[in-house]
Write a structure and sequence with these properties.
This protein is of the alpha/beta class and 253 residues long. The protein has a single domain, classed as Rossmann fold (3-Layer(aba) Sandwich). Helices cover 41% and strands 19% of the residues. It contains 7 helices and 10 strands. The strands form 2 sheets. It has an 8-stranded mixed beta sheet with strand order 3-2-1-4-5-6-9-10, with helices on both faces. A two-stranded parallel sheet has the order 7-8. The longest helix has 26 residues. Bound molecules: NADP nicotinamide-adenine-dinucleotide phosphate (NAP).
Length: 253
C-alpha cells in the first residue's frame, strides 16, 4: 500500500490537502503537534472515504531529533508522495523580532524540510511515481515588508526544491520535486504569524484563497509536469511553470 505523507496536516492547507489526496484514494500519513486535530482529520476522511487508511503521528518537527525519529517511524510504509507543508511565519522588523520564535521557524521551515527531503530522496529517488512537494510561498520569490526572515526561509525552500528538481532530472531519477507557492490563504497562518488568538481574513485581507482552493492547486501541481505552482500576488491567478531561479549546470568530474 502506498502512502502520501503530509506534514502540518492538522489545519489549513495540509488538512485540506489530506482530504484532497484521500479523495484520490491515496492513503494518508498525517503529522503535526496537535493530536486532537489529527484525530478530527482521520475521522473526517474515514467517514467519507472508508477505504483510505489514515495514520496519524504527533511530532514537533521544530526539534531536530524528532525529525529523524519521525522519518524512522515511516519505515513500515511505502511512500509515494511526501509533502513538506508544516511551516509558519512571523511579521515584524528584523530588529524587533522574537529570536526564540525565529529560531524555531528556521528549524521547522528550513532544517526539518531539508532533512526530510534528503532522507526521502535517498530512499525513493529511483521509485517510479514518487513526488516530493515542498510548500514555499509567494514570499519565496518576492520579499515582503515586515516578513523578511520568513521570506528568507521560503526563498530557501524554493531554491532548494527547484535545485533538487534540476538535480533529479539531470540524473534521470524517477522522483519529481515540486514547489507550491501560495499567496494569502485563509488558514491559521495569520494567527500564528501575528501571535493573536483570532484572525478574520474577510474584511482584513483584500484577496486570498481558501485552504480548499489551495489544496486543489496542489493537486494540479501534482498532476502536471511543471516544477513550480505559484499564485500571482497581484492577480491571485495560479500558474504552473518551469523553475524560476537561474541554475548553473556543473559537471561532477
Ligand atoms: P496553518 O493553518 O497554521 O498550518 C500549519 C500546519 O503546520 C499546522 O498543521 C501545524 O500543526 C503545523 N505545524 C506548525 N508548527 C509545527 C511543528 N513545530 N511541528 C509539526 N507541525 C507543525 O497554516 P497554513 O497556511 O496551512 O500553512 C501551511 C504552509 O503554507 C506553511 O508552510 C506556510 O508557510 C505556507 N504558506 C501559507 C500561506 C498563507 O497565507 N496561509 C501563504 C504562503 C505560504 P500543529 O500546530 O498542530 O503542529
Amino acid at each position: 500500500m502506498n502512502y502520501t505523507v503530509i506534514t502540518g496536516a492538522s489545519s489549513g492547507i495540509g488538512y485540506e490537502a489530506a482530504l484532497a489526496f484521500a479523495a484520490r484514494g491515496k492513503n494518508i500519513i498525517a503529522v503535526a503537534r496537535r493530536e486532537d486535530k489529527l484525530n478530527e482529520l482521520k475521522k473526517a476522511i474515514s467517514s467519507i472515504y472508508p477505504e483510505v487508511d489514515v495514520v496519524t503521528i504527533t511530532a514537533d518537527l521544530s526539534i531536530s531529533g524528532n525529525v529523524y525519529s519521525f522519518y524512522d517511524s515511516l519505515k513500515p510504509y511505502e511512500i509515494e508522495t511526501f509533502i513538506n507543508n508544516a511551516g509558519f511565519g512571523n511579521f515584524d522588523s528584523v530588529a524587533d523580532q522574537n529570536l526564540s520564535k525565529i529560531q524555531s521557524m528556521l528549524r521547522l521551515n528550513i532544517e526539518s524540510l531539508t532533512v526530510l527531503s534528503s532522507l526521502f530522496v535517498r530512499d525513493y529517488e529511483n521509485v517510479a511515481g514518487t513526488q516530493l512537494i515542498n510548500v514555499s510561498s509567494g514570499g519565496g520569490y518576492t520579499i515582503v515588508a515586515d516578513a523578511v526572515t520568513y521570506c528568507g526561509t521560503k526563498f530557501y525552500v524554493s531554491a532548494f526544491t527547484e535545485g533538487l528538481a534540476q538535480e533529479l532530472s539531470s540524473k534521470g531519477a524517477h522522483m519529481k520535486a515540486k514547489v507550491l507557492a501560495p499567496a494569502a490563504t485563509e488558514t491559521e497562518f495569520a494567527q500564528r504569524s501575528f501571535d493573536v488568538n483570532e484572525f478574520e481574513y474577510n474584511g482584513t485581507v483584500p484577496q486570498y484563497h481558501t485552504a480548499k482552493e489551495m489544496a486543489q492547486f496542489m493537486l494540479d501541481l501534482y498532476d502536471s509536469d511543471k516544477v513550480v505552482g505559484i499564485v500571482n500576488g497581484e492577480t491571485y491567478e495560479f500558474s504552473l511553470v518551469d523553475p524560476l531561479y537561474p541554475y548553473a549546470k556543473r559537471s561532477r568530474k
